[in-house]
Amino acid sequence: MVDGSWTSTDQFSGIGWVWKDSMGNIQLMGTRNLRRCETSLHSELEALKWVMESMLSMLQHSTCQRFETDCKDMIAKIKDPQAWPNFSTELEVIQILQMCFSDFKISYLPRTHNEIADSLVRNVRSFHRPLCFIGCSIPVWLPRPPQV
Q1: What is the mean pLDDT of each run of 10 residues along the chain (148 residues)?
Q2: Which has the least CB within 10 A, 12, 16, 97, 139?
Q3: Which residues form the RNase H type-1 domain (predicted)?
Q4: How far is CA 90 from CA 34, 47, 49, 97, in A?
Q5: What does pTM read for this prediction?
Q6: From its phi and psi, is residue 136 left (phi > 0), alpha (psi between -120 and 50) or beta?
């Protein structure tokens, strides 16, 4: 599950992901903030790029091929990148990363089912310094999402 968070007033955008196994148990999660992206959709694309890169670097431990997002616009752009020239740079990187997955799939997940990733990215966006975290559980200094 992947998510991005953006506002026009915050200094940072938040991006993050939660990797669950086939039984629905959290195996790993990641969250980080970046200088504020141009738009909310840019934040979503940065989040997908980061989770894909993270899964590739852990491929010996991960069989991840399926990604879920609550952003229907991002799915549309990934499925038809030529129709979105304003996002060509970001979409080209995503296309290159897709080739590294033997059975890449991205699907829609309602926000109500993406609460952990959504909470992680909203919280990390508010930190006033660069932050990056990957781990199996939420650190004590980060507010706990609702379903953990």
Answers
A1: 88 90 88 87 93 81 80 94 89 93 91 88 87 87 68
A2: 139
A3: 2-122
A4: 15, 11, 8, 11
A5: 0.88
A6: alpha
